[in-house]
Amino acid sequence: MSEILTKARELGQAIVDSDEYKTLKKAEEAQEKDEEAMALLVEYNNVRKALAEEINSGEVSDERMAEIRTKLEESYEKVMSHPTISGYYEAQKKFEAIVGQMNSILTYFMTGEISGGCSGNCSGCSSCG
């Protein structure tokens, strides 16, 4: 059992040392320091929350639902067009892809089942590193 924990610690350190993790942390820090980005995120979350409460409060007409959807999409586009926020989400997406690949590899070795598009044959594949 101690070998498993040792390997888990090594994997944890490899994750922290990875370019994807470092990029994610830098992007997260930049976003948190960007007052405009944070204000946009707060605004988006407030719009989303208000719209969800309206939808959950009772029946909403198809017309109002279309208005709500449009308002939410506009707010989302505004958020995602901000370079600091989009940079963070891009870094997060890349990091999550690595985590997904790790999970697929672990699943393959534990179950023999292939998940996430990994064939289990690493020849010619650079996805795992």
- Please outline the major beta sheet: none
Give Rg in angstroms. 21 Å
Number of DSSP-assigned strands: 0
* H/E element sequence: HHHHH
- Quickly give the structural class: mainly alpha
Shape: extended
Mean pLDDT: 88
Helix content: over 70%
Cα-to-Cα separation, first versus last residue: 26 Å
Q: Segments where pLDDT lies below 50 for 5+ residues?
A: none
Report on this structure.
This protein has 5 helices and no strands. It is mainly α. Helix 2 packs antiparallel against helix 5 (83-111) and helix 3 runs antiparallel to helix 4. The protein is extended and about 60 Å long.
Features:
single chain, about 130 residues, mainly alpha, 5 helices, about 80% helix, extended
Summarize the SSE layout with pairings.
Elements: H1 2-17, H2 19-33, H3 35-56, H4 62-80, H5 83-111
Helix pairs in contact: 2-5, 3-4
Summarize the model shown:
The chain is 78% helix and 0% strand.
